[in-house]
Amino acid sequence: MKIGIDISQIVYDTGVSVYTKSLIRALSKIDNKNEYKLFAGSLRRKSDVENFLRSIKNKNFKALVYPLPPTFFNFLWNKIHIYSIENFIGELDVFHSSDWTQPPTSAKSITTVHDLTPIFYPEWSYKKIIDAHKSRLDWVKKEVDTIIVPTNATKIDLRSLGFERKNITVIPEAVEPIFKPASSIEIEKIKEKYNIEDFILCVGVSPRKNIKRCIKVFNKVKKNYPKLKLIVIGQFHEKISKVKDVIFTGHVEKKEMPVLYSGAECLLYPSLYEGFGLPILEAMACQTPVVTSDRSSMKEVAGDAAILVDADSVDDIKKGLIKALMEKSNWIKKGKKRVKDFSWEKTAKLTFAEYQKLNK
To answer: What is the spatial distance between Cα 29 and Cα 148, in angstroms, rounded to a whole number?
Structure first.
């Protein structure tokens, strides 16, 4: 079987990038029989793609990298929808597209829809991103044989847009091996770097991450915890006024993330919408309690191992945060158990099974 996969998005520091890299690594470990043709279109970060490809040791995985920008492929495939993927990587039996473009193909086709934020919440996205996702989804509905989604919540979202149930398969994601409890020495070093002692961790600064409410909650809670600070990781997507004891780190290197998770009193993640919510599992893998939303995919990923709150209610989020601080060991125990239900090997095996179904 000749399997094509679009890996163009591995260069971005996003959940989709984590998914794509992790899936390829896992597939390369479980399948030594079939031929994989990896497509990547990247102009400025071609070297990053090539560096990743060198890390894949399976000789059956070959890549073709084209020094062309994403906007070119968006126009070619999402807009005018010409020039098949086979023209770039050759004959295929199955093609797995990314969540950015949907090229024409004569092969059986499969794609992953990670979330539908640009469709359901356009106010949180840029116009070019919204347009690209709308165009792509139109072609997905017309031409794609199987759609993978990470949660039942995303499946329900797709169904509400008119996609057929029989074409949608739920395959959960997982955490990378780097996410594990850090040593006490590593934690002390990170605390010295940011001049902190006890801290709550928030991941992401886009409007859907609900950071403004998190800050309000923190201000209420810290009255009883004078040494407590709030650490917010990520690049700004909205204007947020500076607040005492709230530290905005900006971009953080991935190697620091497990240490920050491990050192935190808890992860505060009352997001308004997620397709999956990887930070929930990343925190659990680092033995950190989690407070997250009782909506969309988050309650599905967390199960009974996190404190679920109403993301629209400052008071409810506050109650959840206090509960996490007071019952820390209990939620650590639950999280350690929950995260074992997810693995990239399992994700890869289930994905490969979909390739096999399509090739029958």
So the answer is: 21
pLDDT in tens, 202-246: 999 888 999 999 999 999 999 899 899 999 998 765 566 678 899
pLDDT digits (tens, 9 = 90+) for 250-305: 889 999 999 999 999 999 999 999 999 999 999 999 999 999 999 989 999 999 99
Specify the residue for token string 């770039």. Answer: 88
The amino acid sitting at 44 is: R
Nearest to 284 by CA among 270, 271, 297, 303: 303
Q: At what angle do helices 278-285 and 328-339 cross, to 10 degrees?
A: 110
CA distance 117 to 122: 7
> If you ran DSSP here, which 8-state letter would residue 286 be given?
T
Full-model pTM: 0.95
Name 264's Cβ contacts closer than 8 Å, sequence gap at least 6. Answer: 199, 200, 201, 231, 283, 288
Amino acid letter, residue 272: L
Q: What is the mean pLDDT of residues 64-92?
A: 95
Could you give the CA distance from residue 298 to residue 316 in angstroms, rounded to a whole number?
16
List of domains in the chain: 2-174+343-358 (3.40.50.2000), 184-339 (3.40.50.2000)
pLDDT band at 139 (very low <50, low <70, confident <90, very high): very high
Alpha carbon distance 333, 301 (integer Å): 16
Amino acid identity at 326? M
Are the beta carbons of 7 and 19 closer than 8 angstroms? Answer: no
> 309 and 292 in contact (C-beta within 8 Å)?
yes
Q: On the CB side of 159, how many CA atoms lie within 13 Å of its CA?
A: 12
Structure tokens at 166: 């029989």
